[in-house]
């Protein structure tokens, strides 16, 4: 026999409220009851309410993307945006590679394609082909199945996933990044849980590599520390080590057990050769040691907005690689669950088709060659004007960016007087130049160094 329990006070209150609403009453008394019993919460939209976010201050514009914001507001017909790292044609227009359009058409015509979720690790073909592209098809690491590769959200996402994996599972939480480096690097690594320190890289006096400082700083780094290395076309300086210097860096890092984390954003885009631009990475993998590599297809396939990238972790053996992958999946799952399918399918279609791959290498070299021509034309234009200083670094540096050596005041002068936009550190995107705009830039640089010193 069950004894009946009396209702709890909270149940009594709910029944009482319900009974009042069921009682017949005039609309006026109902309205009065509502006004009496309902109090506006801070998150409601009643008139005069203060936002719960009123205390938030306006954040500054991103130093790189903010350049484009300022450029877009400028109404001058001669304005020039050299801030953002995106390739432009000789006419100053964005470029979609012909080989990309062909790959997309093949994908559209394939009626068997579906839009189901990818696995957490992404498109299998894309991962396999991406590892081969950066490490080499004959890489022993690939043949021995000791590389785990996961599709990520372009280079930034690859760096973030790799950094968070290291923060969770690697014994050292300090990462050394070059000074200077891409402005997003310190933020990505810090938010992932790593402690960021820097090593000397660029020498403002020579506008070249501070090689001795680099060796000294890495030599004094604690054993096992992580070291960020730009695979090629260092951003923002355009200054790369020579092959001999890379070998010295490799020997030093391996002797101290420093873990290399490569950022490869410009493979094939720097020299025009995919193999040449991957040499630094392949040297570190060939010695049998471990390494991480973040890849991006934004620049070399022009897939900026598709956000296509990959993270490869080279391990000692296949068993370790398999366990590493299982933990990387646990990083990705709560972050974005799994990556998008379209951009990775474009890349895989191009990389696995011999004809498309060949056409891609030709288009890639054409882009790299145009940037090299822009470097030469700018150097020649400055020399023709007798601009004070040695500007040979413009043709010695490589890749999309040039570190001009201009200071903040000179950059501000060029923006105000010549409507030329760039980051305040004097970095310019050579891909944003054309034969038509080189004279305008040369005039602005000449005026800046002679009047705004």
Automatic annotation (TrEMBL):
Catalytic activity: L-aspartate + 2-oxoglutarate = oxaloacetate + L-glutamate
GO molecular function: transaminase activity
Keywords from the UniProt entry: Aminotransferase, Pyridoxal phosphate, Transferase
Enzyme Commission no: 2.6.1.1
Subunit details: Homodimer.
Miscellaneous comment in the UniProt entry for this protein: In eukaryotes there are cytoplasmic, mitochondrial and chloroplastic isozymes.
PANTHER family, per the entry: ASPARTATE AMINOTRANSFERASE, ASPARTATE AMINOTRANSFERASE 3, CHLOROPLASTIC
Protein name as it appears in the record: Aspartate aminotransferase
Protein species of origin: Datura stramonium
Upper classification of the organism: Eukaryota, Viridiplantae, Streptophyta, Embryophyta, Tracheophyta
Gene label: ASP3
């Amino acid at each position: 026999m069950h004894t009946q329990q009396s209702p709890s006070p909270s149940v009594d209150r709910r029944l009482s409220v319900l009974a009042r609403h069921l009682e017949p009453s005039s609309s006026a008394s109902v309205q009065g009851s509502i006004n009496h019993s309902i109090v506006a919460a801070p998150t409601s939209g009643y008139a005069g309410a203060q936002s719960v976010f009123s205390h938030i201050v306006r954040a500054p514009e991103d130093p790189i993307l903010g350049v484009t914001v300022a450029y877009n507001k400028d109404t001058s017909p001669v304005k020039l945006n050299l801030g953002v790292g995106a390739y432009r044609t000789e006419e100053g227009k964005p470029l979609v590679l012909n080989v990309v359009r062909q790959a997309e058409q093949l994908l559209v015509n394939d009626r068997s394609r579906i839009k189901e979720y990818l696995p957490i690790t992404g498109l299998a073909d894309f991962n396999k082909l991406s590892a081969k592209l950066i490490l080499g098809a004959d890489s022993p690491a690939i043949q021995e199945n000791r590389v785990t590769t996961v599709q990520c959200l372009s280079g930034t996402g690859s760096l973030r996933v790799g950094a968070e994996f290291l923060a969770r599972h690697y014994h050292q939480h300090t990462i050394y990044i070059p000074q200077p480096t891409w402005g997003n690097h310190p933020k990505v690594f810090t938010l992932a849980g790593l402690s960021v320190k820097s090593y000397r890289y660029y020498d403002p006096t020579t506008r070249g590599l501070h090689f001795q400082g680099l060796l000294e700083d890495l030599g004094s780094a604690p054993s096992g520390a992580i070291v960020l290395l730009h695979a090629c076309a260092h951003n923002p300086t355009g200054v790369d080590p020579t092959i001999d210097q890379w070998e010295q860096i490799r020997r030093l890092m391996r002797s101290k057990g420093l873990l290399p984390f490569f950022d490869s954003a410009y493979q094939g885009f720097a020299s025009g050769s995919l193999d040449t631009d991957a040499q630094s990475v392949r040297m570190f993998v060939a010695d049998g040691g471990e390494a991480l590599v973040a890849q991006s297809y934004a620049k070399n396939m022009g897939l900026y907005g598709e956000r296509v990238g990959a993270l490869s972790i080279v391990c000692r053996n296949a068993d370790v690689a398999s366990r590493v992958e299982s933990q990387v999946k646990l990083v990705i799952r709560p972050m974005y669950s799994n990556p998008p399918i379209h951009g990775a399918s474009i890349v895989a279609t191009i990389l696995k088709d011999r004809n498309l791959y060949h056409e891609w290498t030709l288009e890639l070299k054409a882009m790299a060659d145009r940037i090299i021509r822009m470097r030469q034309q700018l150097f020649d234009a400055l020399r023709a004007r007798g601009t004070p200083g040695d500007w040979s670094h413009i043709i010695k540096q490589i890749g999309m960016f040039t570190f001009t050596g201009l200071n903040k005041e000179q950059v501000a002068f060029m923006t105000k007087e010549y409507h030329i936009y760039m980051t305040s550190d004097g970095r310019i995107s050579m891909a944003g130049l054309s034969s038509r705009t080189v004279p305008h830039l040369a005039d602005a640089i000449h005026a800046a160094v002679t009047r705004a010193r």
